[in-house]
Amino acid sequence: MEFSDEAPKLMMLLYGLVAFAVVVGGLLVLLDVVPAWFARRREAALLAAASAGAVRTGAAPPSRRRSVANRREGGLGLFFLLPTLLLLVVGLIVPAVRTTLLSFMDGNSRNWVGLKNYTWMFAQDEIFSVLTNTLIWVILVPLVATAVGLVYAVLVDRARFESAAKALIFMPMAISFVGASIIWKFVYAYRSGEYAQIGLLNHVWKMLGGEPQQWLSNPPLNTLLLIVIMIWIQAGFAMVVLSAAIKAIPAEIIEAARLDGVSPWQMFWQITMPSIRSALIVVVVTVSIATLKVFDIVRTTTNGNYDTGVIANEMYNQAFRFGQTGQGSALAVFLFVLVIPIVIYQVRNLRKQREV
Amino acid sequence: MAVKSRPRQALVIASVLTLALGATACSGDSDSGLDPDSPECAPYTNYQGHDGESVSIYASIRDKEADLLRESWKQFEECTGIEIDYDGSGEFEAQLQVKVDGGNPPDLAFIPQPGLLARFAEANKLKPMTPELKTIADGNYPADWLKYATAGGQLYGTPLGANVKSFVWYSPKTFAEKGYQVPTTWQDLMALSDKIVATKQKPWCVGLESGEATGWPATDWIEDLMLRTQTPEVYDQWTTHAIPFNDPRVAQAVDQVGSVLKNPKYVNGGYGDVKSLTTTPFQEGGLPILQGQCSLHRQANFYANYLPEGTKVGPDGDIYAFYFPAVDPSKGKPVLGGGEFTVAFTDTEATQAVRTYLASGEYANSRAKLGNWITPNNKLDVSNVQQEVDKLAMQVLLDKSAVFRFDGSDLMPAAVGSGTLWKGMIDWVNGKDTKSTLDFIEGSWPK
């Protein structure tokens, strides 16, 4: 190894280290120095106020002084907000504005086309079916996943093998969407009747006397079968959160209800459900947003063929594979608009809880 | 506490530094280059003078084929000192756009779709050729090929590898046993198919599944039949949308494909019924030929790469290919094919050198010797082509009576060529009628 060969690489490494030290060191120093500076200023101001107060009791206008202090506090707050604001601007606001602008332009992002991309979305049968599919997903997945998770959480609560039973249904959460889709693709695999079936579903179907089916190519059943994959993954999440909420119900309430002689049915609807309401909402909202953005499952199993497309998948295809940036952006904006009400609902809900 | 933790911090920093230094030390030992003045390097003197520079290449070629590529320009790297950074990706088409839009394009790219090439050319992203390279390109490649790398009257790329799609794979052994003749017209081909049906066997096997590209082998069928039932001029009008996609002439070609692909008597040998077409991986499509469950499989010369190891490919082997016959041989020999084009996004001198080298006869021969490769480069010595079927493909490519046309789906806008056309073919094979399929594709053509 000759040093002259390695010199540029070492220099590169040195630059990297220096840049790292400057950025991280600078940040650390700033975070240390600036608040300290504000604290000192504040101390000095308080001292001044105290001494002034000692000389002329109550004579100084306190409102003005407080507003100065408030402004300083504001400055400090802004300073701490800066990194977050910066990241939000770079990572969210700029892309959102750019995507919105692109959605009013043509495929090459050169000419303005007005609302054409949005009318295209609803005029093309294919895209319209993408929208209805997304709707089916977003209605079914949160409902069924939450229901399955809830029923399971209630059933195994304080059962003998509770943790084992919970682990069983929680495990799919640890599998990536793509991994889960590949597993399920095998479950749905098809071979013609005269050959041995390698797909679990077709094998069972054949044992029950049916003809092997092309599960993934027959709409509208195929969309439902893809939804099963999502539910399989998300039910574990719903179950864990809801189970924790059920465990957090105060024992006194349950005991009081028992003393009042409730039936298990009443117990569930009158005690459990109201007590875990907020957890339920969190689960439904989280799963809804995840479902609206679902992409991996559809792309891995059918890539949107056979009428199974959803918005996120179509958006990727249009923008990146077909070079129709305008249409892809329009789909992205539409998806964004769909997510907003759910987020607003969630934020309001959180506020309400804090007030209580 | 703060004082105590210092040594630990120092330790962490020290170990990170050691790791980083170690990594750089390991990566810098590949420079065992040849002496630039040695006789081995004589063919590369024109490209020398850029020692230490590096050129990045981005393409869709991966795995074994990518290793062959790297090997093919190894001597060039050693003699010129130019380091070629090759990166192959399965998401090439989408990622190239992202890289270019993000201001981080590769120096060179191998683009298999003339449609995509034209898009980058129109967006002024591609660098034009030096006059020197233009002369080499004109001398080495047929005009039929160069026109696919031309946009707005300007030539932007040179062909690299090629493939010939107009082939039908068959088993010479079985043909000899059963006394079948290799058909030379469409009528003969259909008569042979019927003859095989009479022996209670499905003659054709087809696989259309190919991940997100599912359906593409069916588009090759359509293109081959468009070339055979129509004139090459109509084919060009079809790929450039000078005639609508739902034109009756297109419908006729599609229906003719349907007489094979949608015929339950003809397909799918070894796999089942018509419905199994879209779920059979294209890589496995022709394998039933080896088991004697199927006799005919239409696929490009590169299908040899998907045969199990040890399969004897040749005129007297387990499997071989014949030219997909014309409907009317007196009207010429239509050939459908594809390939990649080398284009440049930067114009440093090192990039120019690599680009010029890749267009040269030296490179074509260096790559062909490694096997699994053909090219329209006329400086290629055909004896350097390794595989039997590749020799046959070269023969078809060089045939003076052949009318060559590029894969139509690669010429169309991506929204159709790698979108609705694939999707349309899947639905069509699964039962949708020709008219509504073609109407759907016509409606999706970007205006």
From TrEMBL, chain A:
Belongs to the binding-protein-dependent transport system permease family. Its main location: membrane. The chain crosses the membrane at residues 12-34, 74-97, 135-155, 167-187, 224-246, 267-290, 329-347. This is Sugar ABC transporter permease. The keyword Cell membrane applies. The keyword Lyase does not apply. It comes from Plantactinospora alkalitolerans. Residues 131-348 form the ABC transmembrane type-1 domain.
Automatic annotation (TrEMBL), chain B:
Residues 1-25 form the signal peptide. It comes from the Bacteria. The keyword Signal applies. PROSITE patterns: PROKAR_LIPOPROTEIN (PS51257). It holds the Pfam family SBP_bac_1. Keywords: Signal, Transport. InterPro entries: Bact_solute-bd_prot1, SBP. Belongs to the bacterial solute-binding protein 1 family. This is Carbohydrate ABC transporter substrate-binding protein. It comes from Plantactinospora alkalitolerans.
